[in-house]
């Protein structure tokens, strides 16, 4: 019925109204700020971890069991624990978004390490270059396209984690908290659909923007792959 599934015309009008609502725009800003902080922390943690695990096989082997145990745990299952330890503030959704998004970055970095020409690494070692310099000056530039792919994948995952945590944990501000509010506290299902469309649009714009940026930054890598193919 129209009560539960409003026609597209009504949803469109509600969407336009929402985009002019200062409180709703503050919710979007809160969500995007948490997303930005989370993805920045995930990159800062996952890239060095991926470089180390990719360059030290023994370390990768010894930590494999822990990584494979933690990686499949869904964010929703961790919400009660995080709320108990951290509370329901912005730190909770940032923490869960970091947890959800660091895995693609880390594993893409490890994969990129496996694709580096061994001659480059051996030449750097033969010249007496320290491990830190090898990882930062040789490995990181070579793995950059793979790292960026991981970041692109993690960006949408982080947004999903932030919005989901806002929705499930009852956050005071954010896009997810707004969706929860209008879906439980009123019969304005047009607002539910409209705000959900905004969340989907944000995810699409993030993914599309990063994909286009990657094509510009790593055009040389695309050319090389096409030549190999």
From TrEMBL:
InterPro entries: MetI-like, MetI-like_sf. The keyword 4Fe-4S does not apply. This is Nitrate ABC transporter permease. Belongs to the binding-protein-dependent transport system permease family. One of its GO terms (cellular component) is plasma membrane. GO terms for biological process: transmembrane transport. The keyword Membrane applies. It comes from the Bacteria. The chain crosses the membrane at residues 28-53, 65-86, 92-111, 157-182, 189-206. It comes from Amycolatopsis vastitatis.
């Amino acid at each position: 019925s129209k009560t539960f599934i409003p026609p597209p015309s009504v949803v469109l009008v509600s969407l336009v109204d929402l985009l002019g609502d200062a409180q709703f725009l503050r919710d979007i800003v809160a969500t995007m700020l948490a997303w930005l902080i989370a993805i920045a922390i995930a990159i800062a943690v996952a890239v060095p971890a991926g470089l180390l695990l990719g360059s030290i096989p023994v370390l990768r082997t010894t930590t494999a069991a822990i990584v494979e145990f933690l990686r499949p745990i869904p964010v929703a299952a961790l919400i009660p624990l995080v709320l108990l330890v951290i509370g329901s503030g912005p730190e909770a959704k940032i923490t869960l978004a970091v947890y959800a998004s660091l895995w693609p970055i880390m594993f893409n970095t490890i994969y990129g390490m496996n694709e580096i020409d061994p001659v480059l690494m051996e030449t750097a070692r033969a010249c007496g270059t320290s491990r830190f310099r090898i990882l930062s000056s040789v490995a990181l530039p070579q793995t950059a396209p793979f790292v960026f792919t991981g970041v692109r994948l993690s960006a949408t995952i982080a947004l999903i984690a932030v919005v989901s945590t806002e929705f499930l944990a009852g956050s005071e501000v954010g896009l997810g908290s707004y969706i929860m509010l209008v879906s439980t506290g009123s019969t304005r299902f047009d607002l539910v659909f409209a705000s959900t469309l905004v969340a989907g649009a944000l995810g699409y714009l993030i993914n599309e923007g990063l994909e286009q940026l990657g094509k510009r930054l790593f055009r040389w890598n695309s050319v090389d792959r096409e030549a190999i193919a």
